[in-house]
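Render this sequence as a predicted structure.
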Amino acid sequence: MSTNYLSADFVARYARPPSDTTVSQAISVHESVRDLLGDTEYATILQGSYKNDTALWDMNDVDIVAVSKGLVSCYFTGSTPTNGVPWADIFSRIEKRLQADTRYQGKWTREDKCIRLNTGVKVDIVPAVRIGDATADPIAIYSFRAGKERKNWPRAHFDAGAAKSAATNGAFKQTVRLLKRWSRCWFSDRKVAPSYYLECAVHAQPNTAFFGNLARDFVSVAAGIGQLRYGSSTLPRQAGEGNLLAPDEWPSAQFQQFQQTLHGASVYAQAALNAYSEFSARNQWVAAFNGQQP
C-alpha cells in the first residue's frame, strides 16, 4: 500500500480542531457560567466534544453539566428523599439565575435535556442530580420528551477517551474528528450518525486498528464498524452501561444507513491510498467525502 500521493496534510485538513481563539472563548464562557452557579450548590462538569478534544474547527458550542449537590435521583436510587424536587423546578432554578444576570437575560431557552444559552458561543447547560456522590459518575439527567431520567457518565467518558488517545498516540481523537466531518458531508439529518455514537463506534475499535496515518485509520476503523451486526453485535458506550445498537439508542434504519454509506466511502478512501498520482488520490479522497473539499 502506498500513501506517497495522498498528502497527510490534505487529509488532516478534514479533521482540523478548533482554533486557539475559539477555545479561549469557550473557556471564558464556561468560567462565567460556573461562577454564576457557584460551587456551593452545584458541581459543574464540562462534557461533549470541546471537553473531549474531538470538536471540529467550527465548534461553537460548549456543554456544561450542572449537578445539584443537594438533590439525589429517586428513580435510580429508589429513595424518597425529603428534598425531592420536580425536574421542572430543577431547570427553573438555573433559568432564574440566568435571567437575573444582565449578560444572559433573555438569551436562553429550555430544550429537551438542557438550557440553551446563546451568547456567540452556544452553551448547553444540562441540569443533573447525583445518584451517589456529586463528584462521581454516574449522575442523572432528564429528558422532557421521554419523560424520564437517564444515567450520564461525563467524567468517565473523558477518562476513557484520554486513555484511548494515549494508547493510540493521539490517533483516536483525530479519527473521531475525521468521522464527524465525514458524517457532515453525507447526512443532512444529523440523527443518522450522531456525534456521540460515532465517537463510541471509533472507541470500540481495537488499538491495533490505528496506525498513526489518518487516511489508513479511516479505512481501518470503517472496516471494523462494518463488521457490526444489528441485533447480534454490541456497541458499548465509551463509558457506562448499555448497548447503543438498540431501538431506543441508535435505531436500526439509521445505523444501517450510516454503515452502508461508510462502506461505500471507504472504497473511495482505499482507492485514494492506492492511487498513482496526486490528482487521482485527491479526487478519490474527496469522493469519499461526498465531493466536499476540506
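Summary. The longest helix spans residues 252-274. The chain has a mean pLDDT of 92.
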